[in-house]
Amino acid sequence: MDKNYLDPKQPLGIEPAAAGIVEGVDACCLDVRPKNSATMGKGRFRGAWWMIWIAMMGIVLDLFILVIYGQKYGAAAIAALLTIVVFGVSLLWPIQVWRGQRPVRFCRKDRKVYLHHYRKTYVADWDRIRAYLKVQHGVTAQGVPIQDGQVNMEFPYPGKTPYAIALLAPESLTSRPEHQAAALWEYIRTYMEEGPDNLPSPVLPEQDLEWDEILPVNNPLPIVRTKRPWVIPFEFGLFFPFRLTLFLITYPTDILYYFLAKHIKTKPFPPELERPCRCEEDQAAE
């Protein structure tokens, strides 16, 4: 696709879609995840969290090797220590995505687009936004070719070339990547020009579990409510072992998630980005 800048006043004649990458939406602001965050995924059982989980399990395993075999086998101790360092360093990137990467903020209140990245705030005027659709070609780690539809946006930066950010369009089995990118742009454009009431309901991120919710969500014990007795042996003999295995993985994982999420706080927007989105204050003043 050519780098043809889009007109925010001109509809593309396609249904808006942004499932899975909207972090929040109200009458004042729309928050959309940038490409890295959308690719890795945030929240329980998403890509960034599983990278953190795997790294921490690797650290636990290497600590076990260090304690059991460290004194007897010097080489094992050195290898375990080096692996702990590698796993520890590998935690930095997924934790940054999981708790630190902020979405791109579209504000209807002041008709601005905000991006806060690496302690810098970039601001673009919506009515003069420089955005274009693109299909990014690439290859997965397994060697499978992929095509990602995305919306690229440029933010002016004094004295330098514009800072560009990519928004990854949600995948769809029924449309081509260029249509997916167009649907994402139309979602953003419709929000800014017409308001949230003209959009499909967004699929918002799941909420973190509270402590008293962890066990009920992971409880492996089946609740048999059937009036057909012949189903009960299958429920206990076939499905319960599977649920028990899943429980042994997910219950400790959710406990780990709970404590890490409590101690690694999500980085808030700076005040200059929070202020334009305080719709409730405007409503209280009216």
Helix content: 40-55%
Secondary-structure-based class equals alpha+beta
The portion of residues forming beta strands comes to: 15-25%
Number of helices: 9
Shape: globular
Arrangement of strands in the largest sheet: 1-2-3-4-5
Mean pLDDT: 83
User: How many separate domains?
Assistant: 3
What does this entry look like structurally?
- By secondary structure, the protein is α+β, with helices and mostly antiparallel strands.
- It folds into three domains: 138 residues, no CATH class; 58 residues; 81 residues, no CATH class.
- The protein is 44% helix and 20% strand.
- It is built from nine helices and eight strands.
- The protein has a five-stranded antiparallel sheet with strand order 1-2-3-4-5, covered by helices on one side. A three-stranded antiparallel sheet has the order 6-7-8.
- Helix 6 runs antiparallel to helix 7.
- The longest helix is centred in the C-terminal third of the chain and has 33 residues.
- The two termini are 46 Å apart.
Describe the structure concisely.
By secondary structure, this protein is α+β, with helices and mostly antiparallel strands. It is built from 9 helices and 8 strands.
Brief descriptors of the model:
286 residues, three-stranded antiparallel β-sheet, five-stranded antiparallel β-sheet, alpha+beta, 3 domains, 9 helices, single chain
